[in-house]
Amino acid sequence: MRIVFIVLIAQIILSAPSQALNILVSSTIQPYIITKNSGLHIDIINATLAEMDHEASYIFASNKRIEHFQHAKDIDIITHTKKIESSQWFYTNHPIESFFNMAIIKNDRGIALTSIQDLAKIRVAAWQNAHLHLGDDYYAMTKKNKGYKEFSSHMPSFMLARNRVDAVISEPNIFMYNLVKGLHNPGIIQTEYKLIPLFKEPNLYWWGFSSAKLRDEFESALKVIYEKGIVDDIVNRYQKKYRVVREPLWSLDCHYGGIQTACPDELERQSNEQPHE
Fold first, then answer.
1. Which class for 153: exposed (0-12), middle (13-18), buried (19 or more C-beta within 10 A)?
2. What is the DSSP letter of 39?
3. What is the spatial distance between Cα 225 and Cα 217, in angstroms, rounded to a whole number?
4. What are 129-188's pLDDT values in tens digits?
5. How many angstroms separate the first and last alpha carbons of the chain?
6. Are 148 and 156 in contact (CB under 8 A)?
7. pLDDT at 147
8. What angle do CA 61, 104, 114 make, to 5 degrees?
9. CA–CA distance, 130 with 119 (Å, rounded to integer)
10. Read out DSSP for 193-258?
11. DSSP H helical segments within 19-129, as ranges?
12. What pTM was estimated for this model as a whole?
């Protein structure tokens, strides 16, 4: 009887679900983060944690509030964050998110943009804290432009559609998702809007972990779901549903998917190492 009792205890312990990990995510980067059960990044995280036999408990916050969680002790994983050398976090060995911000305008407005400085002459809407992350020229432009606004809750794609602003600074997938959700008319996306690449480098974000062990386990599991084709299945699903492009996964594909190409952080480092005249 005692042997049976011990065996039953062992089975209960082995079959008990692991404790959910507290994961901090941005609430303003749809379609990457939509709900706790949907979003391009959410699906990748959930698939990776499933490989690790873990579950997720998501905490949603604006970009600005994410910065306030830098010293939180009850968070296991923080996403969509810049790498801070003095931080408590054990960051991924490579950036996870590579967002290519674009200046998006309507084709019928006759606006010509060839430099960041040109944005100072028109009404511009952007995501929260964009002025801190898009370079010195962009920061200077925001100080000169009285028609410049940043939004914390959503990307104001509809404001461009209704001519309330002249340009929106956004990662294209985020802009298109919010446009479709706001106007319920996806047909206008391809016919009325122009994406202008004013920014030379992608905006890179890392994910931070509460321990090096958790980070290493996560990165190993991430490579496994790439090998199993799970990431490709996720991307294909969102391409069909929201017309997303794959470029923002460039860093993920490069470092964890084994795709042989120059990674965005490597190109940025090479650019910084080149002598300037």
1. exposed
2. S
3. 13
4. 899 999 999 999 999 999 999 988 777 888 898 889 999 999 999 998 888 776 665 545
5. 83
6. no
7. 96
8. 125
9. 14
10. EEEE---SS-EEEEEEESSHHHHHHHHHHHHHHHHTTHHHHHHHHHHHHH---SGGGHHHHHHTS-
11. 40-51, 63-68
12. 0.82
Q: Taking each helix axis from N to C terminus, what angle separates 230-242 and 212-227, rounded to the nearest 10 degrees?
A: 80
Mean pLDDT of 232-244: 91
What pLDDT is stored for residue 269 in this prediction? 55
10-22 burial, b at 16+ Cβ within 10 Å, e below that, comes to: eeeeeeeeeeebb
| 5 pLDDT more than 60 | no
pLDDT single digits (tens) 97-134: 999 999 999 988 889 999 999 999 999 999 988 999 99
Please confirm whether the linkage preceding 197 is cis (ω < 30° from 0): no
Are the C-beta atoms of 31 and 174 separated by less than 8 Å?
yes
Q: Considering only residues 153 and 209, tell me which one the structure prediction assigns the higher pLDDT.
A: 209
Q: Give CA–CA dist 80/120, Å, rounded.
A: 28
Helix (H, G, I), strand (E, B) or coil at 166: coil
The neighbour count for residue 68, using CB atoms within 10 Å, is: 10
Q: Which residues contact 8 (CB under 8 A, 6 or more apart)?
A: none
Q: Which of 242, 203, 234, 254 is nearest to 93 (CA)?
A: 254
Give me the pLDDT at residue 38, please: 94
Residues 6+ apart with CB under 8 A from 223: 256, 257, 258
pLDDT cut 70: percent of the chain above it: 83
> Two tokens at 19?
């404790």
